[in-house]
Amino acid sequence: MSVTSASARTFRSLQRHRNYRLFFAGQAVSISGTWVQNIAQAWMIVELTHSPTGSPLALGALAAFQFLPYTVFGLLGGPLVDRFDKRITIIATQTTLMLTAVALAFLALTGQATVWEVFLLAAVGGAVQVVDMPARQAFVFEMVGRKELPNAVSLNASLFNLARAAGPALAGVLIATVGVTICFAVNAASFLAVIASLLLMRTSELYRSNRDEEQGVLHSLGEGVVWVVHTRAAWLTCGLMLVVSTFGINFSVLLPVLATVTLRSGPVVFGIMTACFGFGALIGALFTAAVGRPSWPILLGGGAAFSALLMVLAPLHWVIACGAMLAVTGVAFTTYTSMSNATVQLAAPDRLRGRAMAFYGYIFTGVPAPIGGLLAGWLSSVGGTQLAFLVGGGVSLAAVSTAAGVRRGGI
User: Fold this and answer.
1) How far is the C-alpha of 41 from the C-alpha of 185, rounded, in Å?
2) Which of 20, 73, 269, 372 is the most exposed place for a label (fewest CB within 10 A)?
3) CA–CA distance, 89 with 241 (Å, rounded to integer)
4) How far apart are the first and last CA of the chain?
5) In 200-266, which ranges are continuous DSSP H helix?
6) Contact 325, 312 (CB under 8 A)
């Protein structure tokens, strides 16, 4: 296959769908801004606790506050998304997230911020994600249709991880030279891009699905959960993701500790470490975009590689070695998560897609993030990032092995 044809296959969703091109461009700006804020918010906690060595538990608490609303209410997002216009819903959620960024910028500018105020705004943002996350994921189908969905899911992952590479690097430089205030202001401005892209779309070109307006929210929720439980591809994918996310995907807690405690460095190295992981994740996302339809061997192989690489990362204490290993880990991470996302999306009936993605998001983020964040913070405070990475990788590898066995056994 020629390079030209491979490239065309990788980016075909962008080539064929104007609405998706607009969304992709808007997200490119907005998600980069979000990563700038994520790094600044974590570093703000480090500064407010006045001790990098005393911050692991505070960073774990930040993750808990950020994702606790999703843990409590996450499953309700799916029925709500399936009842309303997804494009209008996303405009509303993105506007609200922009206002939280403005509030953080104001607190940082005045110099009066407290740890609890940062926690509170993180919780507000997490509450918005209850609806925003499944709405954005389900809206991908409406922009590109079923045929192009796996490609678009992988391209979304590539975009997210390009931002994961660029955003933290920019944040590290901004924090070191100007401070955290500008980071929050940059994120607030970045939301204008995605809101504009949604307003410019041609609604006549969307692949509309029937809205679930007649059923009650709880009945609608129950129907989605029953579908997951009775669909083998969905429950096996979500069950594995629950374990891997809880124990292995805790980078928002571990990377600041890796930079400040393990590597004894500052915000620039923190940004570089996150950018290295994001660069690798971008490569993994482009690979899965070229592959096309989801594949169980690639899904399980990516999960196994990700878990094993966490264990390899555990004993490293050299900046260059950690950066290189995080890049390789990022490739495996996105290969696994992109395949998982596409597997659930394609298995779901059109009218249940919002609920399916809400359940997937709940398993990916809502349950694991607060529990896993606190666990990672505690493990780091007891045995450093070495212990946290070792435990996370070991438990995740055991889960992948179990899932592979279940699949081979036809259970």
Assistant:
1) 12
2) 73
3) 27
4) 37
5) 217-230, 232-247, 251-257
6) yes
Nearest 5°: CA angle at 162, between 279 and 191? Answer: 150
Q: What is the spatial distance between Cα 160 and Cα 360, in angstroms, rounded to a whole number?
A: 17
pLDDT tens for each residue of 49-98: 865 544 677 877 887 788 788 788 877 877 778 778 889 999 999 999 99
* Residue 120 or 62, more confident: 120
Cα distance between residue 375 and residue 55, in whole Å: 14
Model confidence band, residue 37 (pLDDT cutoffs 50, 70, 90):
very high
Residue 186, CA distances (Å) to 98, 177, 255 in order: 10, 15, 22
Q: Tell me the pTM.
A: 0.72
Using CA atoms, how far apart are residues 127 and 161, in angstroms rounded to an integer?
23
251-281 CB burial, b ≥16 within 10 A, e <16: bbbbbbbbbbbbbebbbbbbbbbbbbbbbbb
Query: CA–CA separation, 142 vs 140, rounded Å?
Result: 5
CA atoms of 197 and 22, how far apart (whole Å): 5
Q: What is the CA radius of gyration of the chain?
A: 20
